[in-house]
Design goal:
The chain is an alpha+beta fold. Helix content is 57%, strand content 15%.
Length: 410
């Protein structure tokens, strides 16, 4: 019996027992669907994590000041002045392979108002290269330059949410915004950016609700609590040949000496976070793969059981075919093709269901999902392999039946 004849015979047998064939395929269908859906969710999460951490600067080290209660700060300030411009200068001078440092000041803003609105925005003092470091482009206007920074110019750049709250649909460029008792002229607007929440316990900021002013303006023209840190953050940009984890260890040693061992700061290394995210993702894929494999295994056992029942049911037919000249290999191939057809049909429907599940999760839960070609190939390959593996024994059992005994079977 050649392959086309075996396929035709298998198709006829499956059509004759549609309900049984359909129920047999369910194990393979759900197993393949689970593999594709879970891998697509994992791939989407990994891509989203990489994008978020890239926005933090994979070749940067971020130093943040810690928050403390007033009574704790009084004791800490006896030994440490907190995160300050002195730290930024020391890091730039003493830590090898540092390209530059970018300090940031958080202004305690009790009011941010315009002629037509008000906002509860975060007001931050940053350097003139801040926008370039984040890789952002302005939606309107321009960013302040180095001269405006050194002169302490009273200008500002608004995040998209801050611009909407302060001016609504009216033009914002050239208008005035009052932060505390300081008037600032709007010279630029940042593009819309969604809130980024947290990743691995680290808050990821959005620029949407920020008002950015020159660093010197923030230092000179706004009041600061003497006990609070001078800086909120120092972004340390490393040279391409630097190892961020090693550089972070050197920075921590330096700051520990400058701060009298108080440890009143935190270090964040985006590259280390990305590595940890990838390790977690690999573990997730392994666990989910094992769960889906169990489902495929159950589907394979179901195929074997049905094929054994089919062999028993068609024993007389097998004896008759052998009596008229069919070889053992013909019988074996016929039942192998039937098992293969069952697994292939279940796998094809499972791939479709898996893609639909991934799309449903993305639409309903708002999670990022990515259906990759290798996940489809992996699921389909495992499905076919399971079908063939569990179809071998029933096929061999059918081929080894004695023709005379098979004809006597009732």
């Amino acid at each position: 019996m050649n392959l086309p004849e075996a396929l035709a015979t298998a198709a006829g047998s499956l059509r004759a027992h549609r309900l049984r064939a359909g129920l047999t395929m369910l194990g393979m269908l759900f197993g393949v669907a689970a593999v594709i859906a879970m891998l697509s969710i994992g791939a989407g999460a990994a891509r989203q994590a990489a994008a978020l951490l890239s926005s933090m600067g994979l070749h940067d080290v971020l130093v943040h000041g810690k928050k403390h209660k007033p009574e704790e700060l009084q004791e800490i300030r006896k030994r440490s002045i907190g995160l300050s411009l002195r730290d930024a200068r020391a890091i730039a001078q003493a830590v090898p392979k540092v390209a530059s440092t970018s300090p940031r000041i958080a202004v305690e803003a009790y009011q941010v108002i315009s002629a037509s609105g008000q906002s509860r925005s975060r007001v931050l003092g940053v350097k003139s290269d801040h926008i370039a470091r984040l890789g952002l482009h302005l939606e309107e206007g321009r960013f302040f330059d180095a001269k405006e920074e050194s002169d302490g110019a009273q200008v500002c750049v608004l995040g998209s949410q801050a611009r909407r709250e302060l001016f609504g649909f009216s033009p914002a460029m050239g208008e005035d915004v009052k932060v505390n008792n300081v008037w600032l002229t709007v010279i630029g607007v940042l593009p819309a950016q969604a809130s980024q929440g947290e990743l691995l316990g680290v808050p990821l900021e959005s620029t949407a609700n920020q008002v950015l002013v020159p660093l010197t303006t923030a230092r000179r023209k706004f009041e600061h609590d003497a006990l609070e840190d001078e800086l909120e953050e120092i972004r340390v940009t490393l040279r391409p040949d630097a190892d961020p984890v090693e550089s972070a260890a050197v920075i921590e040693t330096l700051l520990d000496r400058l701060h009298g061992g108080e440890g009143d700061y935190d270090l964040t290394v985006p590259q280390a976070l990305l590595d940890r995210s990838r390790r977690t993702q690999r573990l997730f894929n392994i666990v989910m793969g094992c769960i889906a494999s169990i489902s495929l295994l159950v589907g394979g056992i179901g195929i074997m059981n049905i094929m054994l029942a089919t062999v028993l049911e068609r024993t007389t037919e097998i004896g008759l075919r052998r009596a008229v000249g069919a070889r053992r290999s013909d019988i074996r191939n016929q039942f192998m093709v039937e098992a293969f057809a069952l697994s292939l049909a279940g796998g094809a429907l499972g791939i479709l269901l898996g893609i639909l599940l991934a799309g449903g999760v993305a639409a309903y839960a708002g999670w990022a999902t990515v259906v990759t070609a290798w996940s489809i190939l992996l699921a389909a390959g495992v499905c076919v392999a399971v079908g063939l593996l569990f179809g071998i024994y029933p096929a061999l059992r059918a081929a080894r039946l004695d023709p005379i005994e098979a004809l006597r079977h009732e």
